[in-house]
């Protein structure tokens, strides 16, 4: 039976039960509730039952809707309701399923509630974060407070978690830690982002998919306008993997099979340092005569700043460049450190792929 038919039959049954005014000679007024869920929405049959039960408590009770927490919509702090998933022994939280997220949380995470509802956190982020791993104590009735780096919100947060009125669920309220940045926090946040991209590159067997995800993750977390991998050939370079911010056009069509001569000024500068950070491209182009063509290209594409880290092979030869544009070394992520840590990972990915192609 299609979900629309199930919904229609459910509505009809609710109407019939609501119409009953007498049972065995006694006057009564029935207030039936119903909630529908599909097995494809959640991982197991029990979760399907739980989802239907939760929806039965909402005012709508229909597939794809959940309005039981409308009172939280105007809460100025990001807030979520999650169901912690435990290991086989029941003594450790290994993941969590989103039941509800208020508008402030969705705004900061860049998603809508429909995208999060019923989703597991680790389907998107691999790391074990404090707000999630400590939720078992909240399930046992103990309020939990702490601080951690929240990858979904891209920020250090102070969190408060307690048991929810919904069975086996917890509610967590976050306060963004907007105090002075400490170097220890920046290192920890950068390491968390490195770990995430590293896992994407090395654990995903789909080469193209992982190589596309990595620049997107890097660009998103560093707030760059472009994040890309420049792969060097014998006489030219290409951009096969690129992320572009929503407000700019991709560069790959403009820089396809361009002569390596275009990179000569950059290679000359990199001979003296292990990364290149041009803070003011326009000023740099005025001072460096052989950078005029590159400066014009950057001006045409609204590129004011360039951060470039070489990717070297096992012989120390540059085989590619990791490039970020309009990214500024401030906030909770150190972009230079992030790219330098990821350069060997990209090198391994390129090397392993070249070996497989050679073997085939």
Largest beta sheet: what is the strand line-up?
A: 10-9-8-13-12-11
The proportion of strand residues reads: 15-25%
What is the CA-based Rg, rounded?
Answer: 26 Å
- Oligomeric state of the chains? single chain
Largest sheet: 6 strands, antiparallel
The helicity comes to 25-40%
Whole-number mean pLDDT: 80
Q: Treating each run of at least 4 consecutive H or I residues as one helix, how many helices?
A: 12
Order of helices and strands: HEEHEEHHHHEEEHHEEEHEHHEEH
Q: What is the global morphology?
A: elongated
What's the count of strands?
13
Give unreliable regions as ranges: 59-71
The N- to C-terminal Cα distance equals 48 Å
Going by helix content, strand content and strand pairing, the class is alpha+beta
Summarize this structure briefly.
This protein is α+β, with helices and mostly antiparallel strands and 360 residues long.
Strand and helix layout:
Elements: H1 3-18, E1 22-23, E2 26-27, H2 45-56, E3 79-86, E4 93-101, H3 103-109, H4 113-116, H5 130-133, H6 135-139, E5 144-150, E6 155-163, E7 170-176, H7 183-203, H8 207-222, E8 226-232, E9 236-244, E10 258-259, H9 264-270, E11 276-278, H10 281-287, H11 292-300, E12 306-312, E13 318-325, H12 335-359
Antiparallel strand pairs: 1-2, 3-4, 3-7, 5-6, 6-7, 8-9, 8-13, 9-10, 11-12, 12-13
